[in-house]
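Tutorial, part two.
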Amino acid sequence: MTTTLRENLTGRILLVLLMAITIMPFGSLFVTALHPSGTYPSGLSWPADPQWGNFLDAFQAADMGALLHSSVLIVVGVVPASLLFGTMAGFAFGHLRMPGHRAGFLIFVLGLTLPFEGIITPLYYQIRDMGLLNTRWAIILPLIGLFMPFSVLWMRAHFVTMPADLSEAARVDGAGTWQLFRRVHVPLAMPALSSLAILLFLWTWNQFLLAIVLVDDPAKRTMAGALGAFQGQWGTDIPLLCAGALLILVPTLTVFLVFQRRFVAALLQGSIKG
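Running the prediction step on this input gives:
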């Protein structure tokens, strides 16, 4: 399909506009963070004397080291477990196709329709009865369960495309089901697994609602969840608040920039396979 010069020009203009709209909030945050602490800057005016020390003050005020440590522990607790359970269930639904797999898979698909906001109240009482309130497990365990529908759907979309001849050849060579899964299909599923791992990392790192509701101690929340406590403490100091918000965004932006090709491939893979 060929495109005309007018279509190319229109597409580029729309792309530039979308980029400007996307970057505008980050630019506003950055400019505001450079204003003197305690002031109320308006618009996107560049300060006469940029206060770069606001970032250091925000880092110390929010205790970013402890927040980073807590977020890493939560990610380590959520992502590997979600990958393991999602891969095993996706293999069972997509390749083994045991009796009742359609009904079971439908239950997981229905799980995608559950919004976090709709289950937060019963989840709060359940976590309280388990004695896990104000612990990192109050975030880790619900996230593993909430990520399962998407993880299973994602990995099933990969395993369902694997040729049956591959498994038959492995079985002729004496491989059992576990060996077939671990030595044949998991190595071939590494592109899908790495894409899923990136998505789960970003969703866990940016988790806000569960961290705010289920954990009172900001030092045990995710970095995004701790932003709520930081806002309550420094909500009247707009430049310091903006500096803290930008510091919290740094790890996520770093991961995105390092793995941006894999991240885009993950989104395209999901759009193609449905």
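The two ends are 25 Å apart (CA to CA). In part three we will examine how such features are distributed along the chain.
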